[in-house]
Every structure is written in C-alpha cells, then in structure tokens.
Amino acid sequence: MNILLIDTHIHVMPPDMLRRLDQICAREPYFAAMASSPKARFVSHEEVLNAMRACEVTRAVIFGYAMEDQGLCREINDYVCEVTAESGGALIGFMVLNPAKKDFEAEFENCIARGLQGVGELFPEGQKFDLLGKDMSKLAGLCREAKVPLMIHVNEQLGHSYAGKTSIGPVQAWKFAKEHPGLNIVYPHLGGGLFFYELMREVARDLRSVWYDTAAVPFLYSASVYKVAKDVGAIERLLLGTDYPLLGYERYWAQLRQSGLLPADQAALCGENALRLLRREGDAPW
Question: At what angle do helices 104-113 and 134-146 cross, to 10 degrees?
C-alpha cells in the first residue's frame, strides 16, 4: 500500500519471559487463557521489525501483555523502554501496569520519563481492576496530565466465545469515556461495537475523544464495517491495529481492498489518524 502505515497495536514479549511462559501462566490465569489458544503466538521486537520492513510499515506501537502482577508489568516495560529507544523511531512504546496495585503511579512516572508514549493495552477483567473505579480515575488523570493516550481492552458481547473475551463491552466503555471527557482513549477491536452507538447523538457527544483500533477485525466483522464507521462519523478516529502476531498485515490489506473506502479514508485509517493521536503538543514533527 503506497501510503503512510502506522500499526497502533502490536504485542511483544521479552525473550526471558518467553523462556518462562509456563511459570507465568501458572501465576496469571487470564494470560494463561490467551496463551492456551491455538492461535496464540508470542514474539520479540526483532520479529516485529522484520514484519514491518516486509510490509513497508513505517512505525508501530508496541506493548506487552498487561499482567495482574505489577512486577511482571515492570519487567515488560523495561524491555519496551529499551527496544524502543534503540529502534530509531520505528517503535513507539506503551506501558502496561495494574491500577489496582499501590505502586502503579511510580511505574507510570518512570515509564514516561524513559520515553514511553501511552498506556495499554490494559485488561480490566483479566487484571482484576474496576474500569469505573477510583484507581482508573487516578490513572486517567495521570494520562491527561502527561498528554498520553490510554488503551483499554473491550470486546463485542455477541457471537462466539474465545480466549481473552470478557464481559467488558460497549456499555462500560461508554461510561468510562463519559466520566473522562477530553481524555484520548483507545478502544481496541472497534470498541466492541461501541462506534455503532455514535448514531445516538447523546452518546456521540461523550465519545469525541475516543479512538477505535482494528485489532482482530478480520476475525470479527465483514469488510463493510469500515464503510459503516465512515457513515457514523468515526473514520477520523479509526486506527490501524493488527494485534500482531495474532494476525498479519495481508489480512488487513485484503479487507480494506473490499471495504469501499475512498483512498483518502484508507490513508487516514492506516496512518494519518495515528499521527494526530500520538503527536503531543510541542513534539517535533516526525
């Protein structure tokens, strides 16, 4: 595709943690459920960079799998800080943390100081924190002050069950956005269908700072979902997110070719929207 390509949703795993997967799964039930899927695959940043080069992806947002254990989150963040700093700008790092743990604020400040540019992907049900509780309100305040986005896992509430699917869906996602107006929130997987409700004017008002990524969309929706996103007015807040290594780029390119979106809309989705989200006030141009 001859346009700017920025992938906003890629999971990485530190090599040392890859060697300890069985031990980690024994301590982390939600992560263990995801890891048990026959589609599960875990990669380090080197494989991500190779995949990006092969498909001419300019930049990618990477993060680990958010764990209930804050120590594991810290280990993942150390790795993401290191590899993003060495990537020459190709990799943009988000941090994972557990807002239910007492030391999450210190970890947030440490990661911001080391150059990470967002928070997520967090799993409210998997990490056992209340999306609408006081700890998340505190985290939202930190993100607002640092001018970084907050990515929170939500998923559709209809359809088949699969590893990682939770009860956190559009209702909770809308309530969180309503409580934190102006905060840049990214909801993966098209927000579990939240964007459909932007047809409701009273709901749309609460979602002006909500962004949706396309992670796993080829598994969940037909290609016409992109045209629907444009029709409801959400195309300028849609982000290319592959959930790599769950899915590779070719599945997304094929679906976009069938979507009926105009080239300008495809360019917005595949990179231009991400530029607007990730470029903070005062940042030098990329």
Answer: 20
The one-letter amino acid at 68: E
CATH number for the domain running over 6-278: 3.20.20.140
Pick from 117, 74, 124: which is nearest to 99 by CA? 124
Give the integer Cα–Cα distance in Å for 102 and 281: 30
Q: Is the Cβ–Cβ distance between 84 and 36 less than 8 Å? A: no
Q: What is the pTM of this model?
A: 0.95
pLDDT digits (tens, 9 = 90+) for 227-278: 999 999 999 999 999 999 988 899 999 999 999 999 999 999 999 999 999 9
Question: How far, in Å, CA of 96 to CA of 13, rounded?
Answer: 12
What the block records as the tokens of 238 is: 């849609």
Token readout for 141 is 């305040």
Query: CA 192, CA 153: separation in Å to the nearest integer?
Result: 9
Cα–Cα distance list, 26 to 23, 32, 41, 121, 192 (Å): 5, 7, 18, 21, 29
